[in-house]
Amino acid sequence: MNRIDRLFGVVTYIQSRKYTSLRQLAEKFDKSERTVFRDLRAISDMGLPLGFEPNKGYFITDGYFLPPVSFTNEEANALILMASLADQFTDKSIISHSKTAVEKVKAVLKGSQKEGVDHLHEQTRVLKWHHDMLDAQYLTIIQTAISSKQVLKMTYENKGLETSTREVEPVGLLFYMFDWHMIAWCWKRNDYRDFRVVRIKKLECTAKPFKKQDHINLDDYIKDLPENFSNSMT
Questions:
Q1: What are the pLDDT digits (tens) for 138-191?
Q2: pTM for this structure?
Q3: Dihedrals φ, ψ of 208, to 5°?
Q4: Which of 19, 51, 82, 117 is deepest in the core (most CB within 10 A)?
Q5: Termini Cα distance of the chain
């Protein structure tokens, strides 16, 4: 990667996050912190509104927009592959968004790239497999609640086919044992629970902000999972 491409990449990476540290940039672009700092100075000298907050990191001032996004052939091909996987490993809500995202990607590609991407899309298949998730449409609601930190009201059926209604604060999504799992703080149990998304019978966002402010990090939750994941299912 030449320096011009790296500078553009640095700006894109910073803009994709609320705050970005010098260490994170150095690891991302496999450069020393001194080199990355020089890149940041160059970005600032070009007039881009680069800000910094102590103990948090760098940020791009709200309201600044990059020129229209362009994709390399490899990036476009990777997105096509992910869209193919979404068709089989997610639910209706994600599949619909995936399809519109692919159309937007194609819209900014050059003519020769479009031909290649269309051909790749036609020649890429993820074989169908039986999965109850395909008829559901809750993943988008869960994603929105996680990102906006809003409480969900849920009707859920457990392993014993018992149905209950509860309010939960979702902290993450996990895919394992060929199922999507919502990790959430359950106010009915006053503890974190692992909910299989296929067992959700009804789900709605209450628009109420989280009441609990010190949620566990998802990586820490995963460390505490037993080796036999099936024993952790609610």
A1: 999 999 999 999 999 999 999 899 999 999 999 999 988 778 899 999 999 999
A2: 0.64
A3: -85, 135
A4: 117
A5: 47
**Which residue carries 């209604």 as its tokens?**
165
Angle, helices 111-122 vs 73-89, to 10°: value is 30
CB atoms inside a 10 Å sphere around CB 19: 14
Cα 81 to Cα 162: distance, rounded to the nearest angstrom:
38
Residue 29 phi, psi dihedral angles, 5° rounding:
-105, 10
Cα(109)–Cα(111) distance, rounded to whole angstroms? 7
Q: What are phi and psi of 166, to 5 degrees?
A: -155, 160
Task: Give the DSSP per-residue string, the chain.
Answer: --HHHHHHHHHHHHHTSS-B-HHHHHHHHT--HHHHHHHHHHHHHTT--EEEETTTEEEEPTT--PSPP---HHHHHHHHHHHHHHHHHS-HHHHHHHHHHHHHHHHTS-HHHHHHHHHHHHT--------GGGG---HHHHHHHHHHTEEEEEEEE-TT--EEEEEEEEEEEEEETTEEEEEEEETTTTEEEEEEGGGEEEEEEEEEEPS---PPPHHHHHHTS-SSGGGG--
Q: What are phi and psi of 206, to 5 degrees?
A: -85, -15
Give Cα 224 to chain centroid, integer Å.
Answer: 22
pLDDT digits (tens, 9 = 90+) for 177-194: 778 899 999 999 999 999
